């Protein structure tokens, strides 16, 4: 029997598909550093790069015998990393866009005067979060309090990344609309 390090990618993949943990470990050993360098080059963040590569290997492990490649193993792994990096960049961009929108709204529409109004707005906001549809609230709270990525939320709740992104976007839109309503009501109450 050959040493695993001497086997081709195709041979390692076949062994892995037949259930060999050692073959998976060899694939991981062979590609982790190169995939990490690829992800880091695109992201510029060590933690995010490591998370992306780990997610690719977790996905490969989960697929097991079901892995069907139209390219070589290296091409599959590098493409998977690139796609996950692009998804992560898009998620962060969309999330940041919504946060920036809320921050701009609050800057342009300050509370009438004093901290009690801010506390009222915060209480109303928390109440509105509680009133979000159940699944939307769950997704929103995991992102807000758990600081989980879209992919982590999708995995935990068995949803697609797209559904998670849409739920968070809808929640922020609902909350922004409610903030507009509250501001006008508070101005009437306090003036």
TrEMBL record:
Signal peptide: none annotated. One of its GO terms (molecular function) is sigma factor activity. Transmembrane segments: none annotated. One of its GO terms (biological process) is DNA-templated transcription initiation. InterPro entries: RNA_pol_sigma-70-like, RNA_pol_sigma-70_dom, RNA_pol_sigma70_r2, RNA_pol_sigma70_r4_t2, RNA_pol_sigma_r2, RNA_pol_sigma_r3/r4-like, WH-like_DNA-bd_sf. Residues 29-92 form the RNA polymerase sigma-70 region domain. Keywords: Sigma factor, Transcription, Transcription regulation. Residues 125-173 form the RNA polymerase sigma factor 70 region 4 type domain. It holds the Pfam family Sigma70_r2. Belongs to the sigma-70 factor family. ECF subfamily. NCBIfam families: sigma70-ECF. This is RNA polymerase, sigma-24 subunit, ECF subfamily. It comes from Dyadobacter fermentans (strain ATCC 700827 / DSM 18053 / CIP 107007 / KCTC 52180 / NS114). The lineage of its organism: Bacteria, Pseudomonadati, Bacteroidota, Cytophagia, Cytophagales.
């Amino acid at each position: 029997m050959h040493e695993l390090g001497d086997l081709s990618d195709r041979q390692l993949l076949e062994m892995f598909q037949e259930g060999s943990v050692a073959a998976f470990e060899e694939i991981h050993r062979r590609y982790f550093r190169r995939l990490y360098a690829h992800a880091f080059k695109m992201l510029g963040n060590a933690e995010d790069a490591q998370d992306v590569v780990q997610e690719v290997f977790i996905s490969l492990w989960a697929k097991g015998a079901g892995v069907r490649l139209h390219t070589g193993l290296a091409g599959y792994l590098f493409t998977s990393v690139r796609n996950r990096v692009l998804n992560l960049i898009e998620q962060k961009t969309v999330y940041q866009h919504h946060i920036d929108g809320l921050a701009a709204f609050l800057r342009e529409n300050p509370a009438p005067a004093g901290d009690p109004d801010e506390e009222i707005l915060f209480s109303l906001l928390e109440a509105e979060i509680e009133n979000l549809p159940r699944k939307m609230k769950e997704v929103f709270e995991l992102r807000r309090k758990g600081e989980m990525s879209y992919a982590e939320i999708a995995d935990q709740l068995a949803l697609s990344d797209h559904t998670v992104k849409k739920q968070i976007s809808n929640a922020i839109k609902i909350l922004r609309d409610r903030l507009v309503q509250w501001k006008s009501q508070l101005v009437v109450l306090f003036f």
